[in-house]
Amino acid sequence: MTRVQTAFLEDSVHILTQLLKRLILLSLLLLCSHAISYLRKLWHLNLKISLKMVKRQIESVASSSSEATNESEDREERSSKKSKFKAVPFEATYLRAIPCALQYEKSFMHRDTISHVIATQTDFIITASVDGHLKFWKKKHAEGIEFVKHFRCHLYSFAHIAINHNGTLMVTVCTQDKSLKIFDVPNFDMISMFKLTFAPKTAAWIHQGNDVVQALAVSDAESGKILIYDGKGDNSPIHVVEKLHSKPVKVIEYNAVLDCAISIDVDGMLEYWSGPKRDYQFPSNIAWKYKTDTDLYEFLKLKSAPRCLVIAPNGQLFAAVGTDRRIRVFNFSSGKLMKTIDETLQSYLEQAKLNKNFGLQNMEWNRRVALERELDRDENTFQHMSVCFDETSNFLIYPTPVGIKVINLYSDDTVREVGKMENMRFLGVSLCRAIPDVKERLQGAAATVETEAADNPNLKRSEPDPMIVACAYKKNRFYLFTNSEPFSVDESDNADGAGMGRDVFNEKPTKEDIITAVEQDLPESRITEHAIIHTTFGDIHVKLFPHECPKAVENFCTHSRRGYYNGLTFHRVIKGFMIQTGDPTGKGTGGQSIWGDDFEDEFHPRLKHDKPYMVSMANAGPNTNGSQFFITVIPADWLDGKN
């Protein structure tokens, strides 16, 4: 092949290659144009579909919003109706008849532990102690209370004390000596005494104000019988209710509004029955006929017989405290359970995690928890526990581990917490009448519009003067809560006889108290409340607390007088925290107490590490105090309850 032919072939191949490339490029361009047109059509179609969908969504949202608006309006209307039902009208006015002070204003004594406190409609306060003694006190409006009379009723403790509905008659029951004693309250006099052939367990007055016979129901402690007596007659029963209960009756209460009595036996069986005017039959003025239509089997079902039961002044509610430490509020007429208030220790432990121990210090809260566990172990602790309603029947007042609570029964709100910071465990409460009687207000004159509107301060004695009377666990005092805080809470104010303190010593001390006081005074002669530590850098003035920490102060003072601390160094110094001394070896591992062994920790709620320069015993753990002590230079609250 010649050169010309070879060149021609090469040119032909080159031309064909270029043509092929152009054809491929042209086909690609055609394909791209078709694809673009197709995508454009598809985009227009999707746009139309999306616009239709958006339109539909807008219409659906508009319709749903209108429905939601209607539902919200209906919900608001229902909630407003509900809130209107739950709210108590004139609540602030009603609360004026309930004390608001955080601490008790005054306390008075018995010779022994007080078991009952009762306030009557005649402005008398009845207090009773476990030694069988009874005291009458008169509440004077805006003046406090005054002592009236003292009775030695029984040789044993009271099984029960009952007041009639208008506060004119009272009966005391003693199981051990098988006797009843009846008192005329306004005249503070005993008018009758019944010696029975059986052991009484409880009693209640079951008469209305206009009844001729003041009927008194008494239960037998060994059978299910309930015997009816004439309170102003002899000790012969006028009627016996035999077939109502099969077990001994432990609680009897009377509803004077409906003329209906409630009785509960030891198993928790609850029964309704009428007074003498209806021949002690089943009442006809209540809303149920068969007990299965009610919740009155609740106590029997749970095997939690009530310890106490109280009926509201308006006769529409009653509250019962069960052995399971739950307060149940019932509608009296229907027998339906309205609410249950959980007062168990477990409930308070759960609430304490959320409420920071109810505002109490850790040591104080732990002490109260330990006390509650101790109370749970003793079944007889709460046998005389008492709760009460206010005069309007809207609020329930009851003792708790954190003071006395006032709860609104309609909104379930705790509207008052009285005595939360007091260190005693209240068991019984009673609310005194806040407004005096008309005869007392105007000395018998009628109240008119002019007298009510007058600015004369002598006529303003009708301002509410609320008072709660309370008794506490293993305390021989009863406590008065009013709207006034105490003038002083320092116990030393009572000891000097100046009368500035709130704890009144109205009883002479017993021989045991005198002997104990003398024994306690002996070691105090060897201790002091002030000390000076001489160091090479200057003197340190120390204040001691022998009443709060007697052993620690006695140990320190005795060591100081014996020269035990002379020449010792501050063997441990932590900058910005504390300095420590008291170790003869200077190593931090030596030293012993004056008794030759470790002594226990002593804590007091008033003594805290909440500020610098606090002196505390050094230890190697709980109850390992010897001779070493330290002085803080900063607040160190993490040491509270440890040193």
From TrEMBL:
Keywords: Isomerase, Repeat, Rotamase, WD repeat. PROSITE patterns: CSA_PPIASE_1, CSA_PPIASE_2. One of its GO terms (molecular function) is peptidyl-prolyl cis-trans isomerase activity. SMART domains: WD40 (SM00320). One of its GO terms (biological process) is protein folding. Its EC number is 5.2.1.8. Coiled coil: none annotated. The keyword DNA damage does not apply. Residues 527-643 form the PPIase cyclophilin-type domain. It comes from the Eukaryota. This is peptidylprolyl isomerase. GO terms for cellular component: nucleus. It catalyses: [protein]-peptidylproline (omega=180) = [protein]-peptidylproline (omega=0).
